[in-house]
């Protein structure tokens, strides 16, 4: 769309040829000069094209390098492993458990008692737990209730909650949260990458703009020096007053300063760009050793249809609300009375289940029922109220962020429309400035103008070109910001970066 701006260098070269054409050297020398400059210009173009093909850092490849090797991007990739670790930790609440207890007392050579009870516990969903154990007891001074058959006593039972803990408990809440964390951490990584790509993409386009400005001032200085040589020759031949050589020298000096400033800005921008360039061994690229150039055309970020609903920062509140709702259910469950029931079968020896009949079940069982209920429920009610307030706070924060993002994208779209309008005006200004310069050159050829006026027209053309390049930079920065608001800057990044040019 805006690639024609770089034709300014070519336009300045044409200006040089028009200026020289009105001079009065010998025809043979004029033809030699034209041939020399044409050959030199051709060789420079070929060399430049070869370098660009070999050492061009394209925008997509740049972002793919950032995504693959930048420390922040690597941290974002580690979040998925952290989510898996949390899920594994939550599953630990349902791990089968083997326990064993041995208790013995000897005194003055007498064994008072000896107990040994290995057991296996298997937690299940809905607060159910299966338990199996085998107990032995021996000794002189055993309590009657602790006496067991000589062969030992096997136990197989089940425990469950009928009040608090029936539908949700700490173990199930932790596991559900861990499942939400898996999505939440992935979204946290998207937030980090989205912010990283915004900074990296903006810096790339800044670097690209500074590079183009260097080329504009290089061409301007080259033209000024060629004019200076032509003026000196005209002054020697008596065709021009000596003051014109001072004017030509002043123009060269001014453009040398402008080029130095442009080079300084370009080097500074390249230094900032190198902050985003890393190798796969976690070593940052040395900006002083970078021998790369940006791609010629300005980047046109792909416009994404859709709203702000996919913005990762907005989605982050959804995950927080889901997590708090699980916490709310757990706190609400604490308002219920605690009623825990344990049912078990006993059997002499190591066989856990004896004959299957009702008489056996009635005569060989162990039952335990526990009940508790706080009278005021102060802690449970306070915890529940606190969780509800946190949910409301999170919902309000999400509403506020949604409104901010909506306003940002509206303002950003208005900025894009304004910048596009400015670019059209600058294109027209460029055309008019070009026409004025051409007319001034024609008048100069007829002896009705001066070198000062030609330089003034040319400086105006350079000024418009610089303004146009900077406005294009603002436009593309605004488009990248739009993608950032929508959360889709890295949507089309290649997964396999080419790092061969980062030597």
Automatic annotation (TrEMBL):
Keywords: Cell outer membrane, Membrane, Transmembrane, Transmembrane beta strand
Family matches, as PANTHER family: OUTER MEMBRANE PROTEIN TOLC
Protein name (Swiss-Prot/TrEMBL): TolC family protein
Top-rank taxon: Bacteria
InterPro entries membership: TolC-like
Localization: Cell outer membrane
A GO MF term: porin activity
Species annotation: Pedobacter changchengzhani
GO cellular component: cell outer membrane; efflux pump complex
């Amino acid at each position: 769309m805006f690639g024609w701006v770089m034709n300014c260098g070519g336009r300045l070269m044409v200006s040089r040829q028009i200026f020289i054409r009105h001079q009065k050297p010998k025809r043979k020398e004029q033809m030699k000069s034209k041939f020399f400059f044409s050959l030199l210009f051709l060789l420079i173009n070929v060399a430049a094209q070869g370098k660009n093909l070999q050492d061009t850092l394209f925008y997509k490849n740049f972002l793919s390098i950032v995504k693959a090797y930048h420390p922040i991007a690597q941290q974002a990739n580690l979040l998925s492993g952290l989510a898996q670790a949390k899920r594994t930790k939550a599953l630990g609440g349902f791990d089968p458990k083997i326990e064993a207890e041995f208790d013995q007392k000897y005194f003055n050579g007498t064994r008072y008692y000896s107990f040994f009870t290995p057991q296996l516990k298997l937690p299940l969903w809905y607060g159910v737990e299966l338990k199996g154990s085998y107990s032995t007891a021996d000794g002189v001074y055993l309590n009657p209730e602790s006496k067991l058959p000589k062969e030992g006593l096997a136990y197989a039972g089940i425990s469950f909650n009928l009040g608090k803990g029936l539908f949700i408990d700490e173990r199930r809440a932790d596991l559900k949260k861990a499942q939400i964390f898996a999505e939440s951490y992935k979204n946290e990584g998207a937030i980090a990458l989205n912010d990283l790509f915004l900074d990296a993409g903006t810096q790339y386009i800044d670097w690209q703009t500074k590079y183009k400005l260097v080329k504009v001032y290089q061409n301007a200085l080259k033209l000024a020096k060629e004019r200076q040589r032509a003026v000196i020759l005209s002054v020697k031949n008596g065709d021009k007053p000596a003051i014109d050589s001072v004017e030509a020298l002043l123009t060269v000096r001014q453009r040398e300063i402008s080029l130095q400033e442009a080079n300084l800005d370009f080097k500074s921008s390249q230094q900032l760009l190198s902050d985003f360039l890393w190798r796969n061994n976690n070593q940052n690229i040395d900006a002083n050793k970078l021998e790369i150039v940006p791609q010629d055309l300005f980047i046109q970020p792909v416009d994404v249809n859709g709203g702000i609903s996919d913005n990762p920062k907005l989605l982050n509140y959804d995950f927080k609300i889901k997590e708090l709702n699980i916490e709310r259910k757990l706190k609400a469950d604490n308002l219920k009375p605690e009623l825990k029931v344990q049912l078990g079968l006993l059997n002499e020896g190591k066989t856990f289940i004896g004959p299957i009949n009702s008489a056996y079940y009635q005569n060989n069982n162990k039952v335990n029922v526990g009940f508790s209920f706080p009278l005021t429920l102060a802690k449970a009610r306070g915890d529940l109220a606190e969780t509800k307030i946190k949910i409301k706070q999170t919902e309000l924060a999400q509403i506020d962020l949604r409104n901010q993002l909506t306003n940002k994208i509206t303002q950003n779209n208005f900025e894009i429309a304004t910048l596009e309008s400015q670019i059209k005006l600058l294109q027209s200004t460029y055309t008019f400035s070009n026409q004025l310069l051409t007319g001034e050159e024609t008048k100069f050829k007829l002896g009705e103008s001066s070198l000062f006026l030609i330089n003034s027209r040319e400086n105006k053309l350079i000024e418009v070109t610089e303004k146009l390049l900077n406005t294009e930079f603002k436009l593309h920065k605004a488009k990248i910001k739009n993608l950032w608001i929508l959360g889709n800057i890295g949507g089309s990044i290649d997964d396999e970066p080419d790092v061969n040019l980062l030597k």
